Amino acid sequence: MKLGLVSLIVAGSILSINSANLFAQEEASQNKLKIVMQGLLKDSQSLNEGIFYENFSKIEQAAKNIADHPNPGQPTMKKVIGYLGKEMPVFKSLDIKVHNTAVFIVKAARDKNMPLIVASYHELIDGCQSCHSQFKARVSKILSE
């Protein structure tokens, strides 16, 4: 009798763990863009800190992370593209602006050119804010459905 109860408890635990893992995987796939954006926020904060402390290696690494951020994945992007339709070129142009500006900051950090870094930082943040003000609420809503 005790062995049957133990087997039942073990089986139940395995099912619970598997269910939790499946739920976490499903949730992660649905929130992949959110995860990418959270990473970009951390890298932007690191970039900001690097600027304040004039830490060129930190600036370079943070800007490189921003430029090379992970892709949110094809399923997520298909949903975004389908929703934005004709607005997609604007969305993409803002992503390209942020990417190119981050690449520029990497080069400026290697040259230890703080005035250029700061000017480019403002351009990068403007690109982020422009995208957020135009698309964040709507894209978040469509991805949460």
> How many individual β-strands?
0
- Total individual domains: 2
Q: Which regions have little confidence, pLDDT < 50, spanning 5+ residues? A: 3-13, 15-29
CATH architecture of the largest domain: Up-down Bundle
Number of continuous helical runs: 6
Q: Termini separation (Å)?
A: 47 Å
Mean pLDDT: 85
Summarize the structure.
The protein is mainly alpha-helical. It is built from six helices and no strands.
Please name the defining characteristics of this protein.
Four Helix Bundle (Hemerythrin (Met), subunit A); disordered N terminus; 145 residues; mainly alpha; 2 domains
What do these coordinates show?
With 145 residues, the protein is mainly alpha-helical. It folds into 2 domains: 1-30; 31-144, Four Helix Bundle (Hemerythrin (Met), subunit A) (Up-down Bundle). It is built from 6 helices and no strands. It has helices spanning 2-30, 32-53, 56-67, 74-84, 88-110, 114-144. The longest helix has 31 residues, at 114-144. The N and C termini lie far apart (47 Å).
Annotate the secondary structure layout.
Blueprint: H1 2-30, H2 32-53, H3 56-67, H4 74-84, H5 88-110, H6 114-144
